[in-house]
Design a protein that fits this description.
By secondary structure, the chain is an all-alpha fold. Helix content is 76%, strand content 0%. It contains 11 helices and no strands. Helix 1 packs parallel to helix 10 and helix 5 runs parallel beside helix 7. The longest helix is centred in the middle third of the chain and has 36 residues. It is globular. The two termini are 27 Å apart. The mean pLDDT is 86.
Length: 278
C-alpha cells in the first residue's frame, strides 16, 4: 500500500466511522469499485487497522473531553454530590449500551462478517441502511416532544445498545443504528448523536485493543508503521472535523435529520451494486 492509498483510507475511515453511512460497508465496497488490490486481513494492513481505530478514538476523546472529564471525576467522587450522581448515572448508561455489542461481537462477529462481507452484500446492506434511516425519520414524526440526552434511562440505553449490534453487518452504520435507536426512544437528533458518539469511544478502543495481540505476533514489513502512523493522524483529524460537523448539523437540522444520509446510502449502494454486478 502506498502513501496515497493510506491517506485515502484514513480519510474514508475518519469520515464514515462517525457519519451514519457505514465505514465497514464503504471499506468493503470501495476497493471493489476502484479495483484496489488491498487485503484487509493481511499482516501489512493490520497496523493500519489498529492505528486508524486509535486515531478515531483519540479524536472522539478530544472532542468530548469535557464529558469524559466530568464522568471520570464523578465516578471517582471528586465533584459535587449532584454532579457525581449524574456522572455516575451517565457512565452506567454508557456501560449498559456497550454490553450488547460486546456480547454479540465476541460470539458472532467472525460468522456475521464471513457471511455478509462480500462487496455485493455490503452494497445491498448500504441500501438497507438508507431505508432504515429514512424509515426512522418517518416513525419519529409520531413523537410529540423530543427529549434531550439527559432524560435517557436504563431501558433507553439497553435498546440503543441492541441497535448498535446491527453494525456487525457490513453496510449497516454503527452511528446510524444507535442514532435511530435514540430517535425511536423519543430522544432528539442532537441527544441521540451525542450518546452515539460517547458509546462509540469504548467500542472503538476495545476493537483496537483486541487487535494488538495479533499485531505483536505478525511480521510487519519495514516502513508500514510509519505510513500507518501518518494515516492515523489523518483519520483523527477527519474524525474530529466530522464529529464537529455532525453535532452542529443535528443541532440545526432537527426536522431534516437523517434523511440526506439515508438518500446517499440508497443511491451509493444502488450504483455500487450495479457497477459490481456488471
Amino acid at each position: 500500500m502506498n502513501t496515497m492509498h493510506a491517506v485515502l483510507i484514513a480519510v474514508l475511515q475518519g469520515a464514515t466511522e462517525l457519519f451514519p453511512v457505514s465505514s465497514l460497508g464503504h471499506a468493503v465496497v470501495l476497493p471493489a469499485l476502484v479495483d484496489w488490490a488491498i487485503n484487509q486481513r493481511s499482516p501489512e494492513f493490520l497496523p493500519f487497522l489498529v492505528l486508524l481505530h486509535l486515531g478515531t478514538a483519540v479524536a472522539l476523546l478530544a472532542y468530548f473531553w469535557r464529558d469524559w472529564l466530568a464522568l471520570g471525576l464523578g465516578v471517582l467522587g471528586l465533584s459535587g454530590a449532584e454532579r457525581t450522581q449524574e456522572s455516575r448515572r451517565v457512565f452506567m448508561l454508557i456501560v449498559i449500551a456497550t454490553i450488547p455489542a460486546v456480547i454479540v461481537g465476541f460470539t458472532l462477529e467472525k460468522l456475521v462478517r464471513g457471511l455478509f462481507g462480500s462487496p455485493v452484500v455490503a452494497a445491498s446492506f448500504l441500501i438497507v441502511n438508507g431505508v432504515m434511516l429514512l424509515l426512522a425519520e418517518r416513525l419519529r414524526t409520531r413523537v410529540v416532544d423530543a427529549r434531550p440526552m439527559a432524560t435517557l434511562g436504563v431501558m433507553d440505553a439497553l435498546v440503543i445498545g441492541v441497535w448498535q449490534c446491527l453494525a456487525l453487518i457490513p453496510g449497516i452504520s454503527r452511528s446510524g443504528a444507535t442514532i435511530v435507536g435514540g430517535l425511536l426512544r423519543g430522544v432528539d437528533h442532537e441527544g441521540s448523536a451525542h450518546f452515539s458518539f460517547l458509546i462509540a469511544t469504548p467500542i472503538i478502543i476495545g476493537a483496537t485493543v483486541l487487535e494488538v495481540p495479533h499485531l505483536l505476533h505478525e511480521s510487519v514489513p519495514p516502513g508500514v508503521f510509519q505510513t500507518a502512523a501518518l494515516a492515523a493522524v489523518v483519520a483523527g483529524i477527519v474524525a474530529w472535523l466530522s464529529t464537529a460537523f455532525l453535532m452542529r448539523y443535528f443541532r440545526q437540522h432537527e426536522q431534516v435529520g437523517l434523511n440526506p444520509f439515508g438518500i446517499y446510502c440508497i443511491a451509493f449502494g444502488a450504483v455500487s451494486l450495479a457497477v459490481i454486478l456488471t
